[in-house]
Amino acid sequence: MQQILIMGSGAVGGFYGAQLARIAGLNVTFVARGAHLRALQGRGLRITGLTPMHLHPVHAVEDPSSLDEPPDLVIVAVKSYDTPEAIRLLKPAVSTRTQILTIQNGLENYELLCNEFGSDRVIRGFCKIGAELTAPGVIDYRGLSSVIFGEEDGSQSNRVMQLQNIMERAGISAAVSREIRREAWLKFLWNGIFNMITGLTGATTDMIFDDVDAYAMAWQLFYEMQAVAGAEGVRITDKDGADVIEETRALGAFKTSTWQDRHKGKPLEYDAFCGYIVRKAAVYKLAAPVSQALFALYRLLEKSE
User: Fold this and answer.
1) Is residue 164 over pLDDT 90?
2) Residue 56, CA atoms < 13 Å, CB-side half-sphere
3) Distance CA 166, CA 159 (A)
4) Residue 86: helix, strand or coil by DSSP?
5) pLDDT above 80 for 158
6) Is the predicted pLDDT of residue 146 greater than 80, yes or no?
């Protein structure tokens, strides 16, 4: 895995791409657009915060099909709503030997990538990180960084072990999960609760715990997602809910990615969370009134702003 392509070089993809680019022998290409692309090509990539660094020069492109050779590894870090476009751009750029790791939010992106490229070429994963793109070419890193990925059957295949080795060489905390589908659902629970409430209200996560009704809403969202997960064959316990919700208290006034996007006037990644639950609940004839209300309100917000 010498040639690495970062598909989506915002806060998440940009940070991990920068870490990987520090390894001698790895050639990392960043896919970006607009002012961010121009900044990467001109000034390079600057990481501020807990682990400051300046990566320069940076190989950044708008279209991955312009590469001289196919990448060995693609890390997909675009927003869920950009996944179809990312697939379109990747199709002519990758080869049959290219491995694709998704560390995106949501649960549907893995399926979309598998449908196009095959499960033997796609690895399900996710990340936990506190980072924000504060200006074109600048990422503020605030900690909590880890990447989790694994095979659907729980095996420790050559490809996931090789991927773990590369990431650990880059100083990235990386773990191979034997229950990646369940762990992806646990991450989804967090996003489905905290991203959705804070993105709509503009509140930071600590404010949810200070409001009795908001706190109750967080738990109701959990129960709706728990029911859908069960229908999908994934067991989520009430203790899982307590872990996901209560451990967030320690983050303090945390600004979720949807909160950040709302304040920057960017498109909001709500369809992958409450929209997904509404669609799945309808399939299984389950009640999901809070998710449905959030979904409707987000759609109205999108039309009005």
Assistant:
1) yes
2) 13
3) 11
4) helix
5) yes
6) yes
CB atoms within 10 A of CB 249: 12
Mean pLDDT of the chain: 96
Distance CA 197, CA 171 (A): 33
pLDDT at 127: 96
String of b and e for 53-66 (b: at least 16 CB within 10 Å)?
A: bebeebebbeebee
pLDDT on residue 25: 80
Q: What is the mean pLDDT of residues 182-191?
A: 97
- Judged against a pLDDT cut of 90, whether residue 1 lies above it is answered with no
3-178 CATH choice from 3.30.365.10, 2.40.340.10, 3.90.230.10, 3.40.50.720: 3.40.50.720
Boundaries of every domain in the chain? 3-178, 181-304
- What is the C-alpha separation between 194 and 177, in angstroms, rounded? 24
The highest-level CATH class for domain 181-304 is mainly alpha
First to last CA, the chain: 43
Read off the amino acid at residue 222: F
